[in-house]
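Hi V.,

Quick status before I head out on leave. The structure for the redesign project is tokenized and pasted below; the design run finished overnight.
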């Protein structure tokens, strides 16, 4: 049987202190930290940036900072060149994407391969619309449009699923990617200081355990000068649910090794992937 992850790979999460109002600065800062990630640990094969890594995370700013996804876009160009120069798979966090035909704005992740080729995009499918009394109110849908598909990326080492932040609250998205053979779920995210302590780690571990895959969550660093206080705590969780590495709140790069044997051994011991009873939950199977 072929492995869902072809070899051990080192991954890096760049918990960037970007998201300032100065987009050029944010892009330059992201570039230099991705370069540092690979310079410090040259065996790194896959690097992840956070959600909205080069714009403020603010409903009234998404359109102003939006870009077309294509070789003419400045973020596209910078990320593509970076991936090619460093010979890495680069999960480019997310940016506000302007779709010129419809004039809609999406929250979109671009993924580039070692040749600098765009190998996939994910438009955030579940918009962050919440209202917690005395906690936090946020309504992405005021200015963003939701994506309408789940995303599985084929890279040199196998397949991985991509979701953006609030997407991680929806187990079906991860389950669907894993049923297509994904070895990991990768979530650029920006939880906050209200919901982060409640659910960030819990969801990372839950998505890992319920699918027996790695989960990679990459947050911006916390910036208390901005209106939105990101939680930080970027982390990698293994298929058993152990947190392999967890960042603090400031700017930081964290690394972990993903090992195909970890997936296989844990799945062999607890074979839930073979024991599912879609006959008794046909609504999950999509047949009802
Ligand atoms: N950027 C987001 O989607 C935030 C999601 C979040 O904080 C949550 O609690 O869910």
């Amino acid at each position: 049987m072929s492995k869902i992850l072809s070899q051990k790979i080192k991954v890096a999460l760049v918990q960037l202190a970007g998201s300032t109002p100065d987009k050029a600065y944010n892009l330059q800062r992201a570039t230099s930290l991705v370069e540092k990630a690979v310079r410090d640990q040259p065996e790194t094969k896959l690097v992840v940036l956070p959600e909205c890594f080069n714009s403020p995370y603010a409903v009234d700013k998404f359109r102003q900072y939006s870009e077309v996804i294509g070789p003419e876009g400045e973020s596209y160009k910078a990320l593509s060149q970076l991936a090619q120069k460093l010979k890495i798979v680069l999960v480019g966090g997310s940016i506000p994407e302007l779709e010129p035909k419809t004039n809609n704005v999406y929250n979109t992740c671009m993924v580039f391969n070692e040749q600098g080729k765009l190998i996939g995009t994910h438009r955030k499918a579940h918009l962050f619309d919440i209202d917690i009394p005395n906690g936090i109110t946020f309504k992405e849908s005021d200015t963003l449009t939701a994506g309408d598909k789940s995303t599985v990326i084929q890279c040199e080492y196998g397949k991985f699923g991509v979701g953006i932040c609030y997407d991680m609250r929806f187990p079906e998205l991860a389950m669907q990617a894993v049923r297509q053979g994904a070895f990991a779920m990768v979530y650029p995210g920006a939880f906050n200081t209200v919901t982060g302590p409640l659910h960030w780690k819990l969801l990372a571990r839950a998505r890992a355990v319920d699918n027996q895959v790695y989960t990679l969550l990459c947050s911006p660093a916390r910036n208390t000068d901005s209106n939105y206080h990101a939680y930080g705590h970027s982390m990698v969780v293994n298929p058993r649910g152990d947190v392999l590495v967890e960042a603090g709140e400031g700017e930081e790069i964290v690394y972990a090794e993903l090992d195909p044997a970890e997936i296989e051994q844990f799945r062999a011991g607890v074979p839930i992937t073979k024991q599912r009873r879609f006959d008794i939950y046909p609504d999950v199977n999509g047949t009802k």
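Above is the designed sequence. The chain has a mean pLDDT of 96.

G. will cover questions while I'm gone.

Best,
W.
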